[in-house]
Amino acid sequence: MSTTSLATELTSQTIAPDTEQFDSYVMGTYARFPISLERGSGCRVWDSNGESYLDFVAGIATCTLGHAHPAMVKAATAQMQKLHHVSNLFYVAPQGELAQWLVQNSCADKAFFCNSGAEANEGAIKLARKYAHVKLGIDAPMILTANASFHGRTLATITATGQPKYQKNFDPLVPGFDYVPYNDIAALEATATKYEGRLAAIMLEALQGEGGVCPGDRDYFERVRQICDRHKALLILDEVQVGMGRSGNLWGYENLGIEPDIFTSAKGLGGGVPIGAMLCKSFCDVFEAGDHASTFGGNPFACQMALTVCHTLEQDDLVNNAKERGQQLQANLHAIAQKYSDRLDGARGWGLIQGLVISESHALTSRDIVQAGIERGLLLVPAGPKVVRFVPPLIVTAAEIEEATAIVTDVMANLS
Q1: Active-site residue flag, 238
Q2: Other CB atoms closer than 10 Å to residue 97's CB: what's the count?
Q3: I need a surface site. Which of 138, 267, 344, 346 has the fewest CB within 10 A?
């Protein structure tokens, strides 16, 4: 079936009655798939027509505990009956408790809370710039990021994002950024030397998610750490997509054998409730009262939900489940890629963030596979035009991994 006819069939079968109303009033900033989701449970969601889907999108690596998890339902109900928002003008216990858990379970010493990954990265950029000014005496600090990276949609974070397609028509961009190829130490060495005396930070993803599920190379990151130390620059790691257990370790940097000076978290931190965190070591905590803020950031409701995610990760051994189910998923995807080697180049990733790589020479796109998966009851997400991303909830079972990959096998057998 062609992509056009498949999209037409999907639209006619699954489009919700209120979609026209939705499109009349909501800005068209998303290329939405034509299904309207209404409820979820565990690793499954249901649309407005009652059709069930196995969810390997999880809100784009966000619904750590899946949908309607009993612990989250209980915590949300209790916190809403108690206190949900009062602003950061006052102390609230859940924020302090969450900061303590994150610090005690990472290399960080301090936490700042916001609402999203973009805001967490924005905070990291501001912290690095102030550190460069007040500690290193740099007047015009530079931050190096990677080509094919993704750090958010604010003006500073799309500038940090090394993909021109996200920057088009939003210039003038924020000054003070330059880009290097990911996992290319020679290029990084040369660029760092170019900015000798101005280098404030190197900001990288431990694994590039939107850039095609590309894991960081351990040797590369060990050298990055050395470069930062030599230049007295900060190492910032964007853990927004791979943190909170998704990589098979609690933090992505644990796969790389190094510690960052600053790292960011969001997505899976709140299990689907908006929250972001920028975490840092004490030596670079140069923020003072009034330097940075967030009205909603760290409110008691969001923090209590994040604490529930943290405690459930521990109690249910979900980080280990992500590692084991990730190994199973990657092995199955490699087998599919080998079977359809005329179209697929393999699989890559860590834990429960895996990418099925489509051959650059083949006309097939990631969106073709995603659309065909929807028709068969499986939700997936593209990571660029040639990689299909698999990011199920961390509660996913071995049986659900088998079910998902069986559907992908069927998709590949019927797509040309």
Answers
A1: yes
A2: 15
A3: 346
